[in-house]
Design goal:
The complex is a heterodimer of chains A (112) and B (125). Chain A is mainly β and 112 residues long. In chain A, strands 2, 4, 5, 6, 9, 10 and 11 form a 7-stranded mixed β-sheet that branches. A 4-stranded antiparallel β-sheet of chain A has the order 1-3-8-7, with no helix packed on it. Helix content of chain B is 0%, strand content 55%. In chain B, strands 2, 4, 5, 6, 9, 12 and 13 form a 7-stranded mixed β-sheet that branches. In chain B, a hairpin with a 4-residue loop joins strand 7 and strand 8. Classes of the chains: A mainly beta (112), B mainly beta (125). Chains A and B meet through strand 5 and strand 10 of A and strand 5 and strand 12 of B.
Chain lengths: 112, 125
């Protein structure tokens, strides 16, 4: 099974400042179409996870453009250009390459 | 609007059984891949099972042989049948749909795009 490792485990950010989360997979997530099967989710307090980014860099419908995903192969990054108060929650990466999906441990984003 | 609504969670004794339901609306479960994912404070998000549109089913090693997954197309509902439950099965259980997207005319399924609100399962004596 693919192991997903996120860092940092938590970060505290001033509103308007950028934030960055990294995710590393234990094996390449590149599919035959040369897309990486890496997704990012946010779980806001009291809610289910929501899709932010799929295939490494594609924003899901309705996701603000301050969120961006980058990376390929085994190393990926989620960036928030200007953090807002509504962005608090846990952020997870997930590999969708294998049938048995696996998730990173999560990163808790707090607002200073 | 795509919606997934879980039900059936509750308190059960170790060794007991439980059936979770996932009622879908806004799409057909028969045309999609539907997963169960569970979440605990200690282990985070853990994929549990999936049923493919063609009927194939897969399970994590931690539940294989104890859980089964099925669907009722007429009710547009997917079920997770859990037996021989253990305290470590205690979690919030989410059903979730695998997304489909098209690249160069080919349908690919890169991840999950919709989640239910979750149903809690507690295994304790």
């Amino acid at each position: 099974d693919i192991v997903m490792t996120q860092s940092p485990r938590s970060l505290s950010v001033t509103p308007g400042e950028p934030a960055s989360i990294t995710c590393r997979s234990s094996q390449s997530l590149v599919h035959s179409f040369e897309y990486s099967f890496l997704n990012w989710y946010v779980q806001k307090p009291g809610q289910s996870p929501q899709l932010l980014i799929y295939l490494g860099s594609n924003r899901a419908t309705g996701v603000p453009d301050r969120f961006s995903g980058s990376g390929s192969d085994t190393d990926f990054t989620l960036k928030i250009s200007r953090v807002q108060a509504e962005d608090v929650g846990f952020y997870y990466c997930m590999q969708g390459l294998q049938t048995r999906y696996s998730f990173g441990q999560g990163t808790k984003l707090e607002i200073k | 609007e795509v919606q997934l609504v879980e039900s059936g969670g509750g308190l059960v004794q170790p060794g007991g059984s439980l059936r979770l339901s996932c009622a879908a609306s806004g799409f057909n479960v028969s045309d999609n891949y539907i997963n169960w994912v569970r979440q605990t404070p200690g282990r985070g998000l853990e994929w549990v099972s999936v049923i493919y549109s063609g009927g194939d089913t897969y399970f994590s090693d931690s539940v294989k042989g104890r859980f089964t997954i099925s669907r009722d197309n007429s009710k547009n509902t997917v079920f997770l049948h859990m037996r021989s439950l253990r305290p470590e099965d205690t979690a919030i259980y989410y059903c979730a749909r695998r997304m489909k997207t098209t690249i160069s005319g080919v349908i690919i399924i890169p991840g999950i795009d919709a989640w239910g609100q979750g149903t809690p399962v507690t295994v304790s004596s």
